[in-house]
Amino acid sequence: MNLYHNVKAQWLAYLVFYLVLAAVPLLIDDNFLLNQLSTYGVFGMLALSISLCWGFGGILNLGQGIPFGLGAYGMAMTMQMQSQDASNPMPPFMLNNSLEHLPLLWQPFTNTGVGIVLALAVPTLFCLVFGGLMFRARVSGPFFAIMTLAMLSAWGTLILDIQPYTNGVNGITPPTPLRLGEFTLDPYSPAAYWTVLALLVIATIVAKLMTLSRFGLVIQSIRNDAERVRFLGYSVAGYETAIYTISGFFAAVAGCLWVTLTQYVSPAQFDTTFSLSMVIWAGIGGRMSLLGAILGAFLIQGAQSYLGDTFLNTWLLILGGFFILVVRFLPKGLIGLVEMALGRLGRNRRNGGGDSVPAGQMLPQPGE
Question: What is the distance between the alpha carbons of residues 359 and 25, in angstroms, rounded to a whole number?
């Protein structure tokens, strides 16, 4: 048996991976680098959400920036209102746009708890409604991908157009870090890094358990043959809506964490290039592997941070070419190399180096 498909080995790989990441703040003393690594954790959560939706659900989502951006704006509004007081309740950019009263849209965010709940609930509700409408109409495949891309552009345009409420292209820059009661979360501190890591661990565990459950097996069956699953009596639209909504919730959490770390949000979070990058992370790392997708995000964003300034716009061509090569020759992404290596090792141990493939070896394996 290929050790790659052994569930206990998979859990062990997750454990080792996250223990190594948890030790990072103990090994480096550069606060800027620690903040940068924390943002990689945010990108890893986005790649995880794409892996759930596209890899396991077979739903190519080119608009994952929508829940990410909505969550980011909700958290930015919450943090901005924390810096305002009763005598000066309006953010400066609203005064510059000739507003005289705090808009009704902003008033719930004066309460930190309500603001955080709304930052997570609004994008999740949007995914639930939008996904329900699309999947009940049996919009799927490239048509669904195009619809998500169009909706992403619509949201970006809306954020720009309502400048008095969102500060338009300049975005929102909360002047102070997030405060939770008496605790202030310094975005350059180990506490911020471990917070991001803890939420990424929770998201990974939830996603992993989901893929191993009956729900996960039905989702993967829909990915392989939706019509057959529909004929068996399952609500395909319901399952597709569920996995799309859960994926959107994880993206919303990532958006909240992004603003917490950067203290900034702008319409760039709704840029199509950013959403396409999420798909590239998952595709290169391995969209059918949760860990592979996360590693893909770390690898690509790390390379961009250190090579992007050198190659400038050429970096996008390099990344696109690399993505094409991986899709063409490694359909399961870079993590597929690990699967092939472990599979060859297992066969060599079992039959003394024979190349025969055991029966069932090529069948889909759940919860990779």
Answer: 46
d(CA 47, CA 278): 6
Tokens of 292: 């592979």
257 in any annotated domain = yes
Nearest Cα neighbor of 91 from 158, 26, 172 is 172
Integer Cα distance of 224 and 219 in angstroms: 9
Query: Look-up: residue for tokens 């999740």?
Result: 124
Token pair belonging to 65: 């920036």
314/270 Cα distance (integer angstroms): 22
Domain-located, residue 47: yes
> Minimal CA–CA distance to 363: which of 215, 231, 221, 230?
221
Domain coverage including residue 292: 3-351
Structural domain count of the chain: 1
What pLDDT, in 10s, does the model give residues 306-342? Answer: 776 676 677 778 878 888 888 888 888 889 888 888 8
Query: In which element (H, E) is residue 179 found?
Result: strand 178-180
Structure tokens at 178: 């997030």
pLDDT in tens, 173-217: 999 999 998 899 999 999 999 999 999 999 999 999 999 999 999
Q: What is the pLDDT of residue 84?
A: 85
**d(Cα 25, Cα 312) in Å, to the nearest integer?**
30
Average pLDDT, the chain: 89
